[in-house]
Amino acid sequence: MKIVLTLNNYKYLTGAELWTYELARELFKRNAEVTILANQIGGEIAAKTPSEVNIYPFFDHPEFEPDLVINSQPQPTSYALKAFPNAFHMQVLHSLLSYEEPLIDEKIGKYIAVRPEIKKFWNDRYKELNGKTAVVWNGVDTTRFNTDYTPRKNKKYTTLFVGTFDHLRRDVIMDLVKDAAESEGHVLKLVLPLNPFGENLPNNVEFLHSRWNIEDLVKECDETAGIFVGRTTIEGWLCGKPGLVYDVDEQGHILQKATYDIPKNIELFDSKYMAESVLKEYEFV
Fold this sequence. Notes:
The protein is of the alpha/beta class. It has two domains: 2-139 and 270-284, 3-Layer(aba) Sandwich (Rossmann fold), CATH 3.40.50.2000; 157-266, Rossmann fold (3-Layer(aba) Sandwich). The chain has eight helices and 13 strands.
């Protein structure tokens, strides 16, 4: 079976990139011939991708006829619909944000929402999605993130934030910094590509450069923090940690925050289950 995965960029350790990485890795293990198409390509995520998975730029790839194309974001979806008119197409809905709005096209046979509220939000807006949208949670490699470890005894309550200092997360990071700075018994660990504070790092805040291996940080923290129910939240759950989850609007303004304990249906977040669920949606059509 030939499968193409498309997305804007395949370079950063975040969002759609990691979703695509985990799916490609699992589909390859199921003997699929997997190709990733993206704009920017590189970084640790491309280096970690199995060598048998092909990675090409959108406008510089060989001709082929895939059976299934799984698209993230509107522009890659639009490209793929024209490039592979005979394939079965899915579009993955990663958020409620307008720049990840579903593309309405009769050639898209299924839509995959990574959270139930995403399915409801877009189904309420577009009647064409009703009956064509399934929920498949972000999958995480449970051989890396699990409760099989000896936790370190933190002297101070430790919150872990992994991500970027972009417009969606800026207010969230500043709120976390404020909470840590005001509490003597609290430490905030920020794992980011760049240090936004330079030499003026606030009290009780530790900066660490982004890296692939964050299992030890997740397993040693007392809670994770992030926007929406993102990957770090799920990784924390799998390691037995609650997640402080922020909801933000398109400008990054905080709408609400709440602590989510470990769900009972934790098996839904295994990347193996994610891949099997996506393939079942294809087979059901």
